[in-house]
Sequence to fold (351 residues):
Amino acid sequence: MKPEPTAFTSRFAPRRRGQSRLRTVLVSALLPVAAAALALAPVASRPAHAAATKIPIGWCTMDLEKAKAAGFDFVELAVKGFTSMPDEEFAKFKARHKEVGLPTPVGNNFIPAEMKVVGPEVDEAKVMEYVKKALDRSKELGLKTIVFGSGGARKVPDGFAKEEAMKQLVAIAKKMGPEAKKRGITIAVEPLQSRETNIINSAAEGLEWVKAVNHPNFQLMVDFYHLALEKEDPVILSKAAKHIKHFHIANPHGRIFPKSSEEIDYTGFFENIKKSKYKGGISVEGKANNFETDAPAALAFLRDAVTNGPKKPSDPSVNEIKRPAPAAPAAKPATPTPTTTTPAPPAAPAK
Fold:
């Protein structure tokens, strides 16, 4: 007598030939569909341009609405601008900032030119009072990095030793670092081209300053504009990678929005950013000749550059940059030539 099948034995019972063939056909048909769905799922869940680049592109401005409408990922604010606001004005700006909703993780224009950090007239207490206020307000606006360019504030006066000025820069930075850390902010040194200031003109010099201060909240940033004008090798970006917290970019020919690989050779800059595995942002710091056309062109160019790398320009002569002329001193008013009036001779007496 043949035994009745049990649940256990039924699992291993041979399938009829038709059932087995049908199952094989169904599995073969469904597997490619499932694989395609799995491959596409992560991409579909990400925003459109986030899939193309991991490096957000920002713009240095106080015009939050304009930046958002143009499609920038973030805004880099002028720290001096909002620090100098009266409390009531700052409260209004903060409310507007919240309403617009565009991130502002970075600030620049840190120390006013008239507030010296080197030279014989440094008022350290006054500088630190300003720095604390700037950091407090920066924290309220969500800033995480403050770019320390401030060429006027750090310009070494004539006749003052640069070695002494460097000691002053290190000393003031050692006080800034801990204050920035308390507020979750990093101060990033910006090397500036030699016509804007006379100390810390290269990324290599900026790195020396950072290492001398030796504080985690006092680091480095690099601006392609200054790098190009000083003809510094972009390989410094790889060498200083662990200290670089931010980048600026502009087309050095007029310090305008970058829009094309044909403007200048950007390849070394972006190659070294990629090698360093940088994941921060890049801010456009330059003028727009026509913002409505320049902004989208710059965004498209930069997003492609950080993903695929720019090409070398077809005309190598574009790499020759005409330096901006130093500001001319104010013309002195012409001194009027004194005029003398010769008195008329006395009239001859009547005869």
The CA atoms of residues 266 and 351 lie 96 Å apart. The first helix runs from residue 7 to 11. The beta strands are 57-60, 74-78, 106-108, 145-148, 186-189, 218-223, 244-249, 282-284.
